[in-house]
Amino acid sequence: MALVALALYRSTLLPGFDFGDTGSLQTTVGSTLIAPRVGYPLYFGIANLWLRVVGGDPARALNLASAVEAALACGLSLIVAVELSGSIAAAFAAVSLFAVSYTFWSQAIIGEVYALHIGLCALTLLLLLRWANRPTTARLTLFFIVYALGFGNHLSMVLLAPAYAAFLLLGAKDGWRSMFAPRVVLLALTCAAIGAFQYAWNVRALWYQPQPPSGMLDALQTFWFDVTKSDWRDTMVMHVPRSMLADHAAMYWFDLRQQFGPAVPLLAVAGLAQLATQDSRRAILMATLFAVNVLFAFGYNVGDAHVFYLPSHYILALLIAPGLTWAGRLTPRATLPVAVLTMAYAGTRGYRDFPALDRSRDTRPAEIISALTDGLDDQRAIFLADMNWQLANGLSYFAKVHRPAVAHARVVDLLLSAPALVRDNQVVGRDVVLTERARAEIDAAFGPLLPTVSDPRVAVTPLSQRVAGLPLGTPYVLCVLKPSRELPLDATDLDDALRTLTSVSPSNLRLSQQPPSPPATSVPEGDYAVVAGLVGRPPDLEFRSNLPFTKQVQLAGIPVDIRMESWLSVDTIRRMGFGHVVAGRRHTLIVERGVSFVAFDRSGLALRTAYAANIFAPQPRYLIRVGNVKVER
Description:
By secondary structure, the protein is an alpha+beta fold.
C-alpha cells in the first residue's frame, strides 16, 4: 500500500516552491533557527534531516518528504484498518479510498504538515489499540511518547485527546481509577515534558532576534503568544457567524462528496454500528474522534477550513473497513467481492482525479516571482515589497534559493527612513524598486517628495491583450470566480477579452455588470462562471452558478472537463487551486479566483494561459525618481 501510494504521489509532485504557508515552510527548511511563530519543531527536525539526505532544491525535497510521509501514513492506516475490521481486503479498500481522496492527495504532493499529521494520528491510534489488546506499561509509555511528540508537528493533536482519554479510562484493566494512579500520572507527565522539550528549539531562537526577551518569563510569554497564534486564534476558533452556519453545513457536505462520493459515507455509519456490536469502547473512540475534529473544523473561521476536515475524513475512511465487513456478512463469503468492488471504485476515482491533482508541471509561482524580480540584483537595485502574504512567502523562497542577489525588504520596515534610503541608494547608482502596494504606501506617506514612475522593464498588459492574437478555431476556456476584495475584477477589460474571443457582443453573456461610472469593476453574476468555445465563434458553453459544478464539453473533438472544486463563501485559500480544466486527460489549467484563461491545442496542451484579479496575475513594478536623478552605469 505504501509503495503504491508513494508512486502515485511522486508522479504528481509539485516540482518547486509554492505560495502561502507552503512557501514559508520551504523557505524555513534547513534553518537551524525556528522562531516560535513558525513552530513545528518535529516537522522541521525531520525535514532538515531529510534535506541532508536528499539534497538539491529545498522546495522539491520538502514536497517529496510530504509524499513519503503520506505513503507511510497509508501503510500505518492499513494496519489500523485491519485492527478495526479484521479483514485485510476491507482494510485495503478503505485505505485506498482515503489515499486518493481529494484533500489528502493535494496535501501529499506539496510541502505541508498534514501528511505527517495523519501519519501521527495513525501511529497513535495503532499504539492505543494495541495497548487495549494487551495493556502493559511499556505499550502505554510508547503511546504517551508518540502522542506527546506529535504536538511538535501540529497542535491540533489536542483534538485527539478527548477520545484517547475516554478510551484509556474505559480500557484500563483495573478500572478507570487505575489511570490516575501516581505511577501512571507521573509517566504521562514525563512523556508530556519530553514532547514539550522539542519546543526549546523555538524558544532558543528568541535570543537571536534584534530585540531578545528580557528574561525567561518574558521569553515564555512571547513563545506562548506566538506558537499558539493568540492574536488571531481568539477571533477564529468557534467564531463562525450564525448566519453562516447553514452555508458551512452545505460546504461540509460538498467537501465530503469531494473526498468519497455521496454513498460511501454510509458505509462508515455501518462500520461504526459494526464496531458498536463488537467492542463498544472502539465505537466510542472512533465516534468521538470524528465528532471532535468535525466540530472544530466546522467552527474554525479560517480561509482554508477544508484542510482541517482532513482528520475527520481519515476517521471516516477507517470506519469504512468494518462497514465493508458488515456489508459482506449480509451474504455469505461476500466480504472479498464487496472489498474488490470498493477498490475498483477507489481506482475509478483516482483515475478521474489524477489529471486535476497532477502538479508535476506547475511552475506558476516561479514564473510570477521571476518576472517580478527580473533584472534586479543588489548591485543595481533594492526591492521594497508590500504584497499579498502568499506572494510574499514565495518571494522569500525565490530570493533565498534561486536569486540570492535580489536585495528585498518589506516597505513597512523601512518607511520612516525612506527618504534617506532613496538618497543613499541613488548616490551609489541603485534604483529603489517598489511593488504596487509598496508604491501606494510611499505615495501616502511622502507624496511628491518621493515621486514614483512605472518600471518600463516590467510590462503588465490588460487581459484583453493577453488573450488576443490566437488563431481562429483555437479551443479555449475562460473561468470567472468571485474575486477576493483585495484583488478586484476589471469588468471592462473582461468584456473586451470576451469580445476578442467570441467576436460577439458580451452583453448577452452577462458575466459582468457595467457600473455607471469608473472604476469599471464588478463581480460576476454568481460565484462561478465559465465560457468555453473556439476563438472567433459564439461559445459552445456558457454557465454560471453560485455553487461549484462540473461541466463537460467537446471543443474541436477534445473532451474537456471543467471542474469547480471550492466553496467560495468559505475558501479564500486553495493550495490546489479553486478548480481545474482537464482537456484530453491533460491538466490544462488550474482555476483561481478572479479570471483564469487557457487556450490549448488538439492534445490539451496549454498554448497560452492568463490570469487576472488573483495572485497569479502579472505584477507591476515601480521606481522612485527624486529630482529626475538617474545615475548612468
